Amino acid sequence: MKFLQKLGQLTIKFLIFSRAKVKSRSQVIFDTSLFWLSIGALIFSLGLSVQAATLSINGNVKYQTIDGFGVNANSLSWDNGELKPAIDMLTDEMGSSLWRVVFDMEDWESVNDDSNPANFNWTYYNSLYSNSKFQNLWGTLGYLNQKGITSGITLSFMGRVPNWMSSSGNGNNIATNYEDEWVEMITSLVYYAKNTAHVSFSMLDPINEPDWNGYEGPQVGSAQYTRLLNNISQKLNSLGLSDIKFLGPNTASIDTGINTYMPQMMNDSAVMLKVDHFGFHNYEGTASNASQAIKSSAYPNHNFYMTEISTPAQIFSIMNQGTSGVHIWDGYDSVYNHAILMGYG
After folding, report:
1. Is 205 left (phi over 0), alpha (psi -120 to 50) or beta?
2. Alpha carbon of 232 to those of 229, 246, 304, 342: distances in Å?
3. Predicted TM-score (pTM) of this structure
4. What residues have CB less than 8 Å from 79, skipping those under 6 apart?
5. How many other CB atoms are there within 10 angstroms of residue 62's CB atom?
6. β strands within 241-345, DSSP E
7. Beta carbons of 101 and 134 less than 8 angstroms apart
8. Taking the CA of residue 102 as centre, how many other CA atoms within 13 Å lie in the half-sphere pointing to its CB?
9. C-alpha 272: how far from its chain's center?
10. For the segment 86-134, what is each residue's pLDDT rounded down to a tens digit?
11. Which residues make Cβ contacts (< 8 Å) with residue 111, sequence separation at least 6?
């Protein structure tokens, strides 16, 4: 005990002395090295023996798994490739492996392609998905694929739906009698992305913050949200796109997501076959009780991502609360149409 006390006193004195004369980073490195040499010499001079600790690992025991870290990325900023340097920095220098690629807004089918939601009017959709706005989406996704990022990409739709799809007439909800038309719109884009644009992504987030104000995404309750996911799942399977999984519900209120939307999703086995990860938003550094709620559910092996947090400083706190993936909001300065509608400029 006396040795440890003496060692502590010497350490403190040494650090105070070193800090007083530090003038450059190189000197910090030199002084730190000298410090450890001094500690080694002290141990040697006292004739102490040091034994290596034995570490045993049980590979059958699995704790928290981290899938990666990343950002939200507004595809509208692609602008004929001007976004490349930002993507390069985020992938090559910062190691961003998870990408929530945003298409804003969810109102692209401004006029119904036809009156039959079971039929894709490809003359209409091919023209729509080849316009300049969608070239930004294909360009962003294609460049990420070139960088070797495929399975870590979530395609996320934000903002209001077409006015004609909503009962309010302003796009802030999805009318029940137009749910099949909404499913057709979403799945037509996914099919075109995979088979015509030839871009790769593994996850789909079809509605952003369904519990919120109708601007971030259409207001959709937990029962309707789950029903819509079920319908998308069936449609994707029929199109040969069963490999596309869900990341959701991505609610604005994490407590609402955990206590209302997630249990509703868990009541639908077909939806749960498609859920790759649960997703939530929080800008205060908390994951609430998401980890415990999942582990105590009928799907304890599922995990969750925090798909919107505000600062990198929150990552360690969020990790300690059991998340498997983190997306910071957002990757770079950009303008969102749904934010303009809310008066944010």
Report:
1. beta
2. 5, 10, 21, 29
3. 0.83
4. 136
5. 8
6. 245-251, 275-281, 304-309, 325-328
7. no
8. 27
9. 18
10. 999 999 999 999 999 999 999 999 999 999 999 999 999 999 999 999 9
11. 162, 164
